[in-house]
């Protein structure tokens, strides 16, 4: 068996484990998201570094539900520069700075009825925990997509002393082991083939799809993004324009009364 085959087998097994062990929690998360969307709120999604990929997949994305709202902070989302502007050194510093997460949320004007999905493999860094704590203090729901096997073995980097799985109302455990990468090659000290991103993205889509199903079961028709690269491009653009208009309506309704950052 090749490394590639072994890697795919491992990812498939990990997705299967999430399917078998986390289904109830994904449904619980979907109910929270459906409450926000049906209640005219937003489901914010966020992650730093590679965790941001799963957050971005929530909307706008083919098959995605309008009402999900990714938060993207370039300084802690993009690491491909490595050196220079928005480099790795800046990322390492900024995502550990307490208070930054609360400043981000103030700019997005969260309000009653909103909810938050945080994607963080380790679940220990300050920006992620800032956001989780802020939502909880406001009585809003937090969903954490994280690795409990990893997080439970490392210390929090936040003054609360807690990790994401200890704060979130619903924790979806990806089950990814401590070092993430899964393939060990003779002659190499460190493993290759990371798995956390693939699993987190799958969970993101599963929550989104389950939210759509939950809304339909309530008699509420969700607004769905449609693939424009098909044989019904005109219809797809028309539908997606309505989705964007609906998102803008929800954003326009923000009351701009967020408290001063503490």
From TrEMBL:
GO MF annotations, alphabetized: carbohydrate derivative binding
Any single biological process term in GO: carbohydrate derivative metabolic process
Protein name: Uncharacterized protein
Species name: Cnuibacter physcomitrellae
